[in-house]
Design goal:
Blueprint lengths: L4 E5 L6 H6 L5 E5 L4 H9 L6 E6 L4 H4 L4 H6 L6 E4 L9 H7 L2 E3 L6 H16 L3 H8 L17 E5 L3 H11 L4 E5 L6 H4 L3 E2 L2 H7 L2 E4 L13 H5 L5 E5 L8 H10 L2 E6 L10 H4 L4 E3 L8 H21 L18
Parallel strand pairs: 1-2, 1-3, 3-4, 4-5, 6-7, 6-9, 7-8, 9-10, 10-11, 11-12
Organism: Cladophialophora yegresii CBS 114405
Pfam families: 2-Hacid_dh (PF00389), 2-Hacid_dh_C (PF02826)
Protein name: D-3-phosphoglycerate dehydrogenase
């Protein structure tokens, strides 16, 4: 009996051994390096005509470019599953995939703790206005022009997007004595919600002392936080974003910082990475890191393993372990 064929796009860092071991039951094909043009040419020449599932590595966008309608249309007719390494998948045209009947998975759960850790780090850094003294001491100026910061205790943390990362953020924030409110597409079960309070979007904006963005980027959520939303927030609010930069209109955030509406911000993600809005770079009240939320050995390995598990479940059982939200309950995908 012919073994099923699977394709790896991009490189692996921590699970090369596990990938190679799959060769005992699958025919393995790879496109670790190359260009979009080369990949499209391979598709057109029939090199991948027997591939039923593919592993799309976290850095594969630098190899093939976006999985937009052009590329999705060129994928072989045999393909059924796209197993993506990353909690975010805004570089995949979900509509084009769904139209073609392609089932897509991502890597939630594996990223929850590390992303929430960096979120808490950014929140504390923003509350304590830590950037100024951190720079000053390295320049031999001791604390420099350090201003008084704020404690998290007693503050209301508003979480926009109460998925796994949002809940992990809430769990950590409770240890600091923070009150948790959240807004989601739908209210969580009592078991998942705990002592957090479900509120409307406008109530979230109005009540939050700290607003943490923990939702996916798509056409509906792009610039979900812009000038009109800042106007509804408390004066002196703190913004934390570990999700996707384009959830916020960065120019509007700069204006809100300049006016004092936003007291400070903690950011791991940016609208046009690796480019960062100049007004954010120059503002001492912005505590920033360069998209390192999942940049730990343990999390990176766990993410790669989850993609491999999705791949095996798809090929062997016809189901994905962690299908993307848009396809849950559809196309035989389930958690």
């Amino acid at each position: 009996m012919t073994k099923p064929t699977v394709l790896l796009i991009g490189g692996l860092t921590h699970t090369n051994k596990e990938w190679e071991e799959l060769g005992s039951k699958y025919n393995l094909k790879e496109f670790r390096k190359g260009t979009r043009e080369q990949f499209l040419s391979n598709c057109q020449s029939g090199q991948y005509d027997d591939v039923v599932a593919l592993y799309r590595s976290n850095m594969s966008t630098s190899v093939t470019g976006l999985f937009n309608d052009e590329l999705v249309s060129a994928l072989p007719a045999s393909l059924q599953y796209i197993c993506h390494n990353g909690a975010g998948y805004d570089n995949i045209d979900v509509g084009a995939c769904t139209k073609r009947g392609l089932k897509v998975s991502s890597t939630p759960i594996a990223v929850d703790d590390a992303t929430a850790d960096i979120g808490l780090f950014l929140m504390l850094g923003a509350l304590r206005l830590a950037w100024v003294p951190m720079v000053a001491i390295r320049e031999g100026k001791w604390r420099g022009n350090t201003q008084l910061g704020h404690d998290p205790k007693g503050k209301t943390l508003g979480i926009l997007g109460m998925g796994g990362i949002g809940r992990a953020m809430a769990h950590r924030a409770r240890a600091f004595g923070m009150k948790i409110v959240y807004h989601n597409r739908s209210r969580l079960s009592k078991e998942l919600e705990g002592d957090a309070t479900y509120v409307s979007f406008d109530e979230l904006l109005a009540q939050s002392d700290v607003l943490s963005l923990n939702l996916a980027l798509n056409a509906k959520t792009r610039h979900i936080i812009s000038a009109p939303e800042f106007a509804k927030m408390k004066d002196g609010v703190v913004i934390v974003n570990t999700a996707r930069g384009a959830l916020i209109n960065e120019k509007d955030l700069v204006s809100a910082l300049d006016s004092g509406k936003v007291a400070s911000a903690g950011l791991d993600v940016f609208e046009e990475e690796p480019k960062v809005e100049e007004g954010l770079l120059k503002n001492d009240r912005v505590f920033i890191v360069p998209h390192i939320g999942t940049n730990t050995y343990e999390t990176q390995r766990e993410m790669e393993l989850l993609v491999l598990h999705n791949l095996q479940s798809a090929v062997d059982k016809g189901t994905l372990l962690t299908p993307i939200a848009e396809q849950k309950g559809k196309m035989n995908g389930h958690l």
